TrEMBL record:
One of its GO terms (biological process) is rRNA base methylation. One of its GO terms (molecular function) is iron ion binding. Belongs to the class I-like SAM-binding methyltransferase superfamily. RNA M5U methyltransferase family. RlmC subfamily. The active site is at 333 (nucleophile), 333. Coiled coil: none annotated. Transmembrane segments: none annotated. S-adenosyl-L-methionine binds at residues 212, 241, 262, 306. [4Fe-4S] cluster binds at residues 3, 11, 14, 87. Pfam families: tRNA_U5-meth_tr. It comes from the Bacteria. This is 23S rRNA (uracil(747)-C(5))-methyltransferase RlmC. Catalyzes the formation of 5-methyl-uridine at position 747 (m5U747) in 23S rRNA. The keyword Iron applies. The gene is rlmC.
Amino acid sequence: MHCDLFNADRCRSCQWLEMPYPQQLAEKQARLAELLSPLPVEQWLAPVASPESAFRYKAKMVVGGSVERPLLGMLPQGGEPVDLCDCPLYPADFAPTFSVLKTFIGRAGLTPYSVALKRGELKFLLLTASSHSGDMMLRFVLRSETKLAALRAALPWLRAQLPRLKVISANIQPVHMAILEGDTEIVLTGQTALEERLNDIPLFIRPRSFFQTNPAIAARLYDTAREWVAALNITSLWDLFCGVGGFGLHCATAEMRLTGIEISPEAIASARQSAKALGLRRVDFQALDSTRFALGHDTPDLVLVNPPRRGIGVELCGYLDRMAPPWILYSSCQAQSLAKDVLALPSYRLVSVQLFDMFPHTAHYETLVLLKRRD
């Protein structure tokens, strides 16, 4: 992938960009094998490659510069803001969208927030696109509600310029720290969720719900999970840390009992909307802490976990090991925590492992593993 920003030494986020892509995949596979080397693996599957550019359907842009000449990109520690609107990781239609948004910032009088001076209003723009429809969701992260009326007043112009903007919200983040968002979200459109569709499964993204950055690889990941589960004759499934329900909804059948647990109420609302659209009736999505839920319920045939980078932790590992469901399917964005968790599940053996390159040109990747209870 060619990147003028990288070549000009203005952005080094893609640390591995100078490494040929096949070598990147081989290096990641080698690192994963090293991490799992204390554990015998019955089946290593070939890594799943990503498109090398235009794969990132989410942009988290720091707003810098001035209200007349805003910059959208990143703010290096102790450095000047770097405009990333031409980043080749984004789909082609992101750059013209950013151009319109820069004009809108001036029309609405949204003064970029200055970290050094601790003043201004607009901190971040968060843009998400649906790979299915091309529709978009836009979030303005503001320091306060001071400019909310001006933002509302200017929105008709913005929506006329960008008709694919279906969901728009304002998030209020008043803290002078590098925190992406606050607790208050104000939806400014009638539509509250952006529809994505992967493998013909409708998934709904709300402003504060997590969704994968790379939809092409997310689709392959979910489809692989569905294939693995379909081969196991499962009648009951827990989907812990379920997010908007991508894994569980892919794996569920009309006869299967699916319980999805996620601490975010917004994500659970999305999962319920998807289940309704699919006509699934034996489904129960709840906004709860996954570990606390798991500690007090009967054993299903399979437990699927997709935790944040920290992993599922000692407490949940210990409980799952004692509860002993026949199968555990674990999707991990941090292989170090995955390896630690699997070692904390001595009653299980590793059946299958596959790497999914969710984050090309970096050292990061997603891993899917299937564990079977020892006889």
